[in-house]
Amino acid sequence: MGKNRHESLGLSDETVVEMYETMLLARKIDERMWKLNRAGKIPFVISCQGQEAAQVGAAYALDRTKDVIAPYYRDMGMVLAFGMTARDLMLSAFAKAEDPNSGGRQMPGHFSSKKLRILTQSSPVTTQVAHAVGVALAARMKGENIVSLATFGEGSSNQGDFHESANFAGVHKLPVIFMCENNQYAISVPIKKQLACERVSDRAVGYGMFGATVDGNDPLAVYEVVKKAVERARNGEGPSLIETICYRLTPHSSDDDDMTYRTKEEVEEAKKKDGLYLFRNYLLETGALTEEKDQAINERVDAIVDEATDYAEQAPYAEPESALKYVYEE
Ligand SMILES: Cc1ncc(C[n+]2csc(CCOP(=O)(O)OP(=O)(O)O)c2C)c(N)n1
Ligand SMILES: [Mg+2]
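# magnesium ion complex -> structure
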């Protein structure tokens, strides 16, 4: 019998099932957050739904013990793969003192962990891209063999920060990967009104770097191309621009009504290509997963989400006296 796709990529059954579980955990945390928001318990949600496959596929192509990520606000799947926990994310959603991302000071989605090599981020979109380039430059100067990866939306690929960062990284052949999660919208603006070129990855040639567009609903396809970009970076061949084609399954955020700019039919159509379910089916077909195993995974993930929700809900808020901590020198 010939090798199946994940075996051909050097991934064991155990690893692909772990990838699936990470995608599922991200999805279920996200779904819970919407319920908590609608129940008035948390102020804001910005979703990963529809992008988990790209996020987890990319994370697994990196060395998660030494590489650095500069994620953007939808990257729940990526930060979970890098070791963040459901509790950490729920503590952030509830804005509690113990939130390791910002001590409950930032909006959710501003992922950050020094320990896990997740760069802290700012609210202006695309600033993290320049930061990832800085990490790659520092690594080069220190002689460290690490790769940095920044993610961003396709709307953000029009920001000056992206173009300046890409040019600098291209000129200096830095070990950095620019990964665009093209989810077809920048809030209410559809892709057609965002770019004049056909693909975000078409821009790679302008910066002298490797570029590719892949199906962002397929974690193995994303894994394969990001792995190639990682190898190029480690071999001194410079940066890459990877575009993953996704679809944002939720409104932009919990404060937005997407039915003012897209149709229910369009969203329903996109759900048929949901990477989470396609990957589940693939794993069942190859025998890496069974219905029984899947049920056990779902039960385990549900329990993790319940525990994280209860823990974060009951956790204390930061002391009001600490509001200015980290703002002024002490
Ligand atoms: C510099 C800047 N301009 C505008 C905003 C407001 N804003 C937040 S998210 C967003 C849309 C970004 O779209 P895209 O890059 O495609 O990412 P997506 O939300 O679709 O994942 C905008 C305009 C911002 N945060 N920063
Ligand atoms: Mg977008």
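# post-check
The pocket of thiamine diphosphate (ligand 1) is lined by residues 74, 123-125, 152-156, 183, 185-187, 248, 252 (CB under 6 Å).
The chain has eleven helices and seven strands.
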